[in-house]
Write a structure and sequence with these properties.
Layout (H helix, E strand, L loop, with lengths): L14 E3 L3 E5 L4 E11 L2 E12 L4 E7 L9 E7 L6 E6 L5 E6 L10 E10 L2
Antiparallel strand pairs: 1-3, 2-5, 3-4, 4-9, 5-8, 6-7, 6-9, 7-8
Length: 126
C-alpha cells in the first residue's frame, strides 16, 4: 500500500453500506439506495445515491442514514437531485444522530417520484 506525505498508509477501499431512507412526514412506498464510506479515525467520508421510485405519502424532508453516529456537532453534506429538478441539495446531520435530513437549496422538497438524489461529504463520527 502506498504511503502519503506523512508516511501513513493509504485510506484503503471504500466500504459499501445500505442506507435506510424515510420521509419526515408520511411514508415512502419504494426506493433504491446505495452508500459507500471511508473512515479514518473519526473522520467519515460518505456518498449516497437514492432513487425514489414511488414517494407514496412521503413529504417534507428526505432522511438518509449515515454509517456512523455523528459527533456532538452539526454537519452539512452537499449534493444534487439529478433526474427531475436538477437542483442542488443540502443534507444536515444533527449532533449525535445517524442520519442526514435533505432539502433543496431553497429549503423545498426533494421528495418527488423518480427523483435521484446524490450526496457526498464528510462528517465527524462520535
Amino acid at each position: 500500500m502506498a504511503s502519503n506525505i506523512n508516511g501513513q498508509t493509504g485510506l484503503g477501499a471504500w466500504i459499501a453500506y445500505t442506507p435506510t431512507v424515510t420521509a419526515s412526514s408520511g411514508a415512502l412506498t419504494s426506493y433504491t439506495a446505495t452508500g459507500r464510506y471511508k473512515r479514518t479515525g473519526n473522520t467519515v467520508l460518505v456518498t449516497v445515491d437514492v432513487t425514489l421510485t414511488n414517494i407514496g405519502t412521503g413529504s417534507i424532508v428526505l432522511n438518509i442514514t449515515v454509517p456512523f453516529l455523528a459527533a456532538n456537532h452539526r454537519f452539512v453534506i452537499n449534493g444534487f437531485e439529478r433526474a427531475v429538478t436538477g437542483v442542488q441539495c443540502f443534507g444536515s446531520i444533527a449532533a449525535n444522530t445517524g442520519y442526514m435530513g435533505i432539502v433543496a437549496y431553497n429549503n423545498t422538497y426533494v421528495i418527488l417520484t423518480n427523483s435521484n438524489v446524490i450526496m457526498t461529504g464528510e462528517y465527524e463520527a462520535a
